[in-house]
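This section describes the prediction task in plain terms. A model, or a person checking by hand, is given the sequence of a single protein chain and must write out its three-dimensional structure as a string of tokens. No templates, partner chains or ligands are provided. The sample shown here is typical of the held-out split.
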Amino acid sequence: MKVEATHFPSKTVHRLAVVTAAATFPLLFIGGLVTSKGAGLSVPDWPTTFGYNMFLYPWSEMIGDIFYEHSHRLVASGVGLLTILLACSLWFYEPRRWMRWLGAAALGLVVMQGIIGGLRVVLLEETLAIIHACAAQAFFALTVSLVFFTSGEWAGEPERVEPSDAARLQRLSVLVTALIYLQGVFGAVLRYAGAGLYYHLFFAALVTIHVVLLVTRISRSHRGQSRLLRPAIFLGALLVAQIALGLGSYLAKFTPLGSSLAAAATVILTTTHLVTGALMLVTGLALTLRSYRLRGLPRSRPSQGLLAEQLSA
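The expected answer:
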């Protein structure tokens, strides 16, 4: 008996999820820019801005580091509003209960992010800044997951293919995604506390090894699966860029060469290194989600499946 694919009531929810994820990416870049420029405490109060309502602060006063920090707050507020709309849309129009709760989790996470970011300013705690940075990566990954789960690709019938190494592909994809996130955690510790360089480099090496293994496996065994091959190639390209950016950031911050570079070059290097890591994280996540869609009836026993259908008729 054939089970029909689930059809979502509207494409509006999916489009809203895409807009939310797309808006989160520049927010990560702006947040990294604030940290790289040391502008995180240029606005000393929260939730106000120099006593003003945050949304009424005069544009003419947004100069220097204040521009970067206040822009970060405004863009974060916009992402928060989009997340509210997305969570409400999921709650009222999404037929899958677990998806409604996933939208609620996204809303809770973005609210928590706002509070942690504000308390970091008020309490002057570096630990809160690290938590804020790590949660930002997790939120971005969650929004990208919502894009997948609300897409026509996810609603449709999964591909009736079961590769011989499907389980290995799934485990390797999960491991790569987890390692990329852990490297981001140690990267946040390094950026804010100036500690953990060797841990960061160790996880960078682990990420490199496992990304190469994952890309190689997909290129050899799944080259006919474009939904796996394309993100795998993109992940490999991101890895090359990330290694180059990481090397540049290391030379700029931890060697005498950094003193000869313009401050703007160092800021761009370190910030681009951060957002490239975020892109690697969500690309690894995309591969993980898609690898779990590669399921179906084993090709080796079609007659047993037919017999079971006949017996149940």
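For orientation: The chain has ten helices and no strands.
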